[in-house]
Design a protein that fits this description.
- The chain folds into 3 domains: 5-85, Winged helix-like DNA-binding domain superfamily/Winged helix DNA-binding domain (Arc Repressor Mutant, subunit A, Orthogonal Bundle), CATH 1.10.10; 93-162 and 264-289, Periplasmic binding protein-like II (D-Maltodextrin-Binding Protein, domain 2, 3-Layer(aba) Sandwich); 164-261, D-Maltodextrin-Binding Protein, domain 2.
- 40% of the residues lie in helices and 24% in strands.
- It is built from 9 helices and 14 strands.
- The chain has helices spanning 5-17, 20-27, 31-45, 61-85, 101-118, 170-174, 221-229, 239-247, 276-289, and strands at 50-52, 57-59, 93-99, 122-128, 142-146, 155-162, 164-169, 190-193, 198-202, 205-209, 217-218, 234-238, 251-254, 263-269.
- It has a 5-stranded mixed β-sheet, with helices on one face. It has a 5-stranded mixed β-sheet with strand order 11-8-12-7-13. A two-stranded antiparallel ribbon has the order 1-2.
- A hairpin with a 2-residue loop joins strand 9 (198-202) and strand 10.
Length: 291
């Protein structure tokens, strides 16, 4: 092999940490040594991989290509090491997850206690952010997405299909016009999620409630749930998210015979060659979301 695999691993670590200093701290080695090793790698292949500034590093165009291929190699090596060292029986390490708040609160957090009891060596770091994380530059192991996804070059694993429904508080319904058929929604305060209309079906019938105006609109289902609890109107929520408030008698399902389209949930990873810690968590979460 023309280049030392250790130097390639150090280059990958620097890119994922987005800093020589941070990578050096994680690797427990001097920053100067790490910088020298990466420079040696660049000289050995005759290509500049990184733009260095006083505050940050950036991949060159060729560096991006080299990193994506080297990352896959390093993952394979790490997986082989884990399996041979017995880590498959006892996975450990830090797992970085990116997701929106409502997915974390309603679908992930409730299952973490049991998972950590089964795998105490795995630690978690959450990136709770409505923006879409970049798995490479943000050093994320898994990004969870609800709804259809574009072809991003990432590996998408479907975890579940969530059912949705329309919900409102008892107080709101008590003071609002009757609501028996979808056409009645025209006379109600409907809360809009991410600019989407209400698409509803019953048997072979399909109707769409198009929003002309909405008293409240948001890109967060969790925020819409809070608005429903505050008697602000009718919103589309996932059944698992609404379940607790329904059981407590705080909100009700309206037009229960009319079903919005199910929403797929995906786990996005950079590669199919997943470390053991990632595989066991995804398998566990899949089992919990599909009881």
């Amino acid at each position: 092999m023309p280049n030392n695999l250790n130097d390639i691993a150090l280059f990958v670590a620097v890119v994922k940490a987005k800093s020589f200093r941070k990578a050096a701290d994680l690797l427990d080695m001097p920053t100067s040594t790490l910088s020298r090793r990466v420079s040696h790698l660049e000289k050995s292949i005759g290509v500049r991989l990184l733009h260095r500034t006083t505050r940050q590093i950036e991949l060159t165009e060729l560096g991006k290509t080299y990193f994506s291929r080297c990352q896959a190699i390093i993952v394979q090596v790490e997986n082989a090491h884990e399996e041979l060292s017995g880590a498959a029986e006892s996975p450990n390490g830090l797992l970085r997850l990116s997701m929106v708040e409502e997915f974390a609160a309603d679908y992930v957090v409730p299952h973490l206690k049991e998972f950590q009891r089964m795998h105490p060596g795995i630690r978690f770091e959450f990136d709770i952010n409505p923006r879409r994380a970049n798995l490479i530059s943000d050093s994320v192991d898994i990004a969870f997405r609800m709804g259809q996804i574009s072809d991003s070059g990432l590996i998408a694993r479907k975890l579940a299909l969530f059912k949705l429904g329309l919900y409102a508080s008892k107080t709101y319904l008590k003071n609002a016009p009757p609501l028996k058929i979808p056409a009645d929604l025209e006379h109600h305060k409907c809360l809009q999620l991410s600019g989407m209309d209400f698409h509803l079906s019953k048997g072979g019938k399909r109707v769409v409630h198009k929003f002309k105006t909405s008293p409240f609109a948001a890109n967060s289902m969790s925020l819409l749930k809070r608005l429903v609890l505050a008697d602000a109107g009718i919103a589309m929520l996932s059944e698992p998210m609404a379940h607790g408030a329904v059981v407590d008698g705080k909100i009700l399902r309206v037009l229960p015979d009319w079903q919005p389209p199910e929403v797929p949930v995906y786990a996005l990873t950079e590669t199919r060659l997943l470390p053991v810690k990632t595989r066991v968590f995804l398998d566990y979460l899949h089992s919990k979301l599909n009881p």
